[in-house]
């Protein structure tokens, strides 16, 4: 048993991960803390892309508090950055379903944006969190874009995601080892699949 500086031992950490997944973790927070960790160790620089807003009214007497604003335009994907000298862009999606991810959760402008990233040689993927199962998969955006554009189904099945995707390991630090999955899918020639 290893004691960490925060006084948690390995058994406590593994137990908290199990409870964390079962609760339906705050997915965005887990991605953000993982990105901070990756930045600290200089493995990658990946940031959350802010949603563009148009500010209509500001109350300067109240420390510049925004009083009225609206979304200026549709956002692209959730995160972008640079990893191993490659541009990286990805979208995070959660589903409570144990059997599929609905395409209603994905907008056409996100598909269009990720197709442009792929066209220009960037890495584009989805991180999909199955809340009820406590599982997270990395799935190449080409697969989702192709299925989305076919319009044959209203969702992508769990089995397709499990088969064609890569399970993301959850740990203490980083919370989500999604860059290990990126390595397997995009950089490891021995395991690289033809997507």
Find the count of extended strands (DSSP E, 2+ residues).
10
Could you say which structural class the secondary elements and strand pairing correspond to? alpha+beta
Level-2 CATH architecture: 3-Layer(aba) Sandwich
Kindly state the percentage of residues in helix.
Answer: 25-40%
State the CATH topology: Trna Endonuclease, Chain: A, domain 1
Strand content: 25-35%
Q: Summarize the helix and strand pattern as letters.
A: HHEEEEEEHEEHEHEH
Euclidean distance between termini CA atoms: 41 Å
Low-confidence stretches: 8-24
Described by strand count, sense and barrel closure, the largest sheet is: 6 strands, mixed
How confident is the prediction overall: mean pLDDT? 82
Domain count, please report it.
Answer: 1
Question: What's the CATH class label?
Answer: Alpha Beta
Q: In angstroms, what is the radius of gyration?
A: 19 Å
Give the number of helices. Answer: 6
Form type: globular
Describe this entry's structure for a reader.
The chain has 195 residues and is α+β, with helices and mostly antiparallel strands. The protein has a single domain, classed as Trna Endonuclease, Chain: A, domain 1 (3-Layer(aba) Sandwich), CATH 3.40.1350.10. Helices cover 34% and strands 29% of the residues. It has helices spanning 10-23, 27-40, 108-119, 141-150, 158-164, 178-187; strands spanning 44-48, 53-59, 65-71, 79-83, 86-95, 100-102, 123-130, 135-140, 155-157, 166-167. A 6-stranded mixed sheet has the order 1-4-5-7-8-10, sandwiched between helices. A hairpin with a 5-residue loop joins strand 2 (53-59) and strand 3. Helix 3 crosses helix 4. The longest helix has 14 residues, at 10-23. The radius of gyration is 19 Å and the shape is globular. The N and C termini lie far apart (41 Å). Residues 8-24 have low confidence and may be disordered.
């Amino acid at each position: 048993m290893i004691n960490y500086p925060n006084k948690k031992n390995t058994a406590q950490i593994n137990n908290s991960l199990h409870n964390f997944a079962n609760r339906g973790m705050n997915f965005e927070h887990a991605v953000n803390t993982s990105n901070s960790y990756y930045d600290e160790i200089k493995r990658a620089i990946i940031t959350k892309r802010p949603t563009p807003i148009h500010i209509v009214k500001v109350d300067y007497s109240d420390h510049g508090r925004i009083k009225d604003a609206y979304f200026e335009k549709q956002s692209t994907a959730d995160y972008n950055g640079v990893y191993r000298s490659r541009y990286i862009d990805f979208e995070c999606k959660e589903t409570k379903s144990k059997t599929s991810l609905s395409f209603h959760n994905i907008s056409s402008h996100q598909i269009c944006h990720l197709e442009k990233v792929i066209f220009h040689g960037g890495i584009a993927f989805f991180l999909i969190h199955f809340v009820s199962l406590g599982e997270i998969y990395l799935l190449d955006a080409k697969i989702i874009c192709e299925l989305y554009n076919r319009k044959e189904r209203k969702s992508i099945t769990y089995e397709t995601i499990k088969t064609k995707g890569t399970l993301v390991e959850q740990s203490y630090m980083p919370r989500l080892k999604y860059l290990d999955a990126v390595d397997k899918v995009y950089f490891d020639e021995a395991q690289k699949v033809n997507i």
